[in-house]
Amino acid sequence: MVSHIVLMKPRADLSVDGRAAFVDAFERAIREIPTVRTVRIGRRVTHGAGYEQTSPDAADYLAVIDFDDLAGLQTYLRHPAHDALGARFGQSLS
User: Fold this and answer.
1) Under 8 Å CB-to-CB from 23, ≥6 apart: which residues?
2) For FRET with 42, which of 10, 56, 63, 83 sits at 20 to 30 Å CA-CA?
3) 56 secondary structure, DSSP code
4) How far is the C-alpha of 85 from the C-alpha of 63, rounded, in Å?
5) How would residue 88 be classed by pLDDT, with cut points 50, 70 and 90?
6) Positive or negative CA dihedral for 69, 74, 75, 80?
7) Helix (H, G, I), strand (E, B) or coil at 18
């Protein structure tokens, strides 16, 4: 298995419609790209560890996308639905 880990921090000025468009693009990518096996998304939780001090603003959310192998990840990254998601990343995330 290969996991693709994505750190996400929404832009402070991202509108409700912008958030919805980002979520729609993400859902479309994971639904349409056949090599995606599992997806987990969570909110960052801080717990007082010292290393949190060095990157306090790294991300608000984390996505872990699993594939059977490197070829599956490469298929995902080259898929048109991922291209659309990538465009939304630039517009939606800081």
Assistant:
1) none
2) 83
3) T
4) 13
5) very high
6) positive
7) helix
